[in-house]
Give the backbone structure.
Amino acid sequence: MLPFDKLLPFDRTAAPAVYLQVANSMIQHIRSGVIKPGFWLPGTRELAGILGVHRKTVVAVYDELSAQGWIEAVARKGFHVTRELPEVRPGGWGKDGQRSGKGRPGREGQPGKGDWSGRQDREHAFSKEMAAPFYPVERGRFRLPVVSVPPSRLIIDDGHPDSRLAPLELLGREYRARLSNRGGRRPVYATMTAGSPRMREAMVGYLADTRGMQASVPNILITHGAQMSIYIAAQLLLRPGDTVIVGEPGYYVATQVFENLGASLLRVPVDEQGIDVDAVERLSRGRVVRMLYLIPHHHHPTTVTLSPERRMRLLEIAEEKNFSIVEDDYDYDFHYSSSPYLPLAASGHNNRVVYIGSFSKSLSSSIRVGFMVGPEAFIVEATYLRRLIELRGDNHMEDALAELIRNGDVGRHLKKVNRIYQGRRDHLCGLLDSNLGDVVDYRKPSGGMAIWARFNKRAPVKELAGKALKMGLYMSDGQAYNTHNKDYNAIRFGFASLNEVEMDEAVQILTSCL
Amino acid sequence: MLPFDKLLPFDRTAAPAVYLQVANSMIQHIRSGVIKPGFWLPGTRELAGILGVHRKTVVAVYDELSAQGWIEAVARKGFHVTRELPEVRPGGWGKDGQRSGKGRPGREGQPGKGDWSGRQDREHAFSKEMAAPFYPVERGRFRLPVVSVPPSRLIIDDGHPDSRLAPLELLGREYRARLSNRGGRRPVYATMTAGSPRMREAMVGYLADTRGMQASVPNILITHGAQMSIYIAAQLLLRPGDTVIVGEPGYYVATQVFENLGASLLRVPVDEQGIDVDAVERLSRGRVVRMLYLIPHHHHPTTVTLSPERRMRLLEIAEEKNFSIVEDDYDYDFHYSSSPYLPLAASGHNNRVVYIGSFSKSLSSSIRVGFMVGPEAFIVEATYLRRLIELRGDNHMEDALAELIRNGDVGRHLKKVNRIYQGRRDHLCGLLDSNLGDVVDYRKPSGGMAIWARFNKRAPVKELAGKALKMGLYMSDGQAYNTHNKDYNAIRFGFASLNEVEMDEAVQILTSCL
């Protein structure tokens, strides 16, 4: 008889249950060869006596070991250690330097070297390089980093709303109520792939009231933010080699989506009236163009709004050339000097337009709810693709948001923040004029959340950003806006998320850095 | 002088502000030609007198009209209607049958036909077909519908957790607290693309404690559910024509991702021990295989667990053939008869494995938080791709979940529901044996949330599902599991989300439908 009392120590005060401690010790001894394959274990009553534990504890030990395949029960004889040892352990598998005995060669010293006991073994850890090849993301000529914002006292973002003003408490209350609704056993299910029914229904009225758009539920897909809508629309519209027209400068994350799909980019200048439609017509002559990506309000990054005349022209050209327009109207809800222009999608677009919007701007960047509106057949395909990307969104959140749309909270919030953001825009313009007039050139945008601030050459933005960071102010280094043949030396100076005191301080820091 | 008191009626009790009502009437008259281009408007004081409103109201009317370009101010002379009329209206643009007068031809009767006043015009509405071509989603030989679950009293899902048991109230509280935290001005920002820092840090400990996995923060990407991890991993690993190995039968949504990417599928049989590794080796001989998609615990749909020996073999074959393994361990947290086996990713995998998991199973399908663990260089690319798909996840929700992981709520919950689900599994097995023994064949799964219930030919599942629905019970019609050459006539009978009373009723209905 083996000295089981010595072999199987345990600590009643430790966290793991006693039976698990004993079972784990037993496994160690089996694996190390102290307890040999085929060895008959003492009966449960006997071992209980040796260890000074209840018999049920030993039963639990043997149950666990046999469930894991370390020992086998033989009727009326008891338990013996499995003759062909499993390559497993409690929550573990793989055995030091050994193969599973089936003559499979493998490579010496290769996998299987470590195991549970070798948890600290770096060979088990994920490290830097992938062993097998994979395809990196196509990022165009510039391999833009995913920006990591260092902890800073102040942040100049590129045009985010001020979450402090949003009705997030109301939304959070609605959300929590739905999340914990144990009675209403309405499972979140495949049916929700296109968005929660309530949210899609609420969108029908919302689109009509705010944008004059005639859409029905089958025209609407709710996504996890506007970016996902861009991604899905582009996936359906583009194949490698297809031509897509984008503005220059343009929204670089969208451009990367198109590049990643292997599309051929046609960069068309954007001036004070928006994208240059004459250039669109000229450049698309003699080519097949598949789609045009458009930001009609407050083009990213330059913040210009596409003139009504050009909107008309663009639809005409799309008809003539038979391409689709992806209208990313992320900033529609924020227009200050007059009402915003209706979307192209609200006009006689002949089902050429896929319209994209988001509540991440309307409420808070933390609210990831966007939408896509398009012809039903397109939305059907978009829904399929969305299921492949993520089975569905957070339908409770969508329901909560639908409630805020319906009871008018969203409308009231937009009215309120439009007034506030307009004031902040004007305040920032004043600051730029008085403090940075000889360094920064800009045009006051008619809406949105950012000013396109072009610095003159004597003040390289990259350098400035570095200096500012040391003083607790984060700002973009402007690299993201540059394309292969153009250095804009500019940033989008977001004014919506900063109150006047914060803006004063931010501009003060900037001034002192020059 | 025009009869402005007649032309510009308004209603003080109506919702739109008086100045907007007046402005809108004015625009209608300008557009219809009643008020002509070049017409000098009465002074503000005069019009205020005519209409019986405060002078400030008229100032607001003229401000609005001039902001929209309908009228122009001339210093010391007042306002006149713009000579070249803008093709815009309040929140609208486009004009009936007219061009903007710049000699641009366009096509007669083409776009621009409708406008704001034509809001009900169906030509402005999104309808069914897209005008320009697009690429439908590749869905293999079966064009699976996105399932729409009709309202039913009872639902047999394919293995969802019971949200009624989850600590959603705690999570909702944490979430709401973060959402409405106005003080902590930590903007949700680009830095969050890979997941909230807190969540990624919490995952390091969680993966080590529950799965024996050695990963650091740069090895971890938080996604919006496991499906997004599958999609991203597949995008990085596959190009059209690349070979990917999947189990047969297998998880059809994942398979569709691979098909959609143009990959060539190698379907390998799955038996009671999991995927047939001998077949993997045989079929991959003489070919370049890029990746193998694996569900190690409770394979979808058949619920079998991959044996430890096969896990070893699979890693060896992956070494020999130099392919990557995408390990979708969605069901790891639910194993009843013993501890689950450690993931391949916790063994000596030599950076060949990309590990995928989710909290949608651990807590509730409504919680869309999944994760991917892999070599750092792979996670960097995955983060880029994730930004193209959605800029970031819901970082407040991730922070809330991180808190529940850290304070042990998730662990306690898992312990509790494992016990409950085990009981439900056993209860369902008992029901199937006693009520449907001659119709349903199954093997008791060692974990997970569903039983793979194969009906015999006399009971076609599709027909059964139709009958059951009429009695208030929704169940899958089994079509999703079939592949082009195989009709399994089976469903995944989810037992986790039904309590015993509900299960009794569901089986009773099924029995009565036979």
Notes: The longest strand of chain A covers residues 264-271.
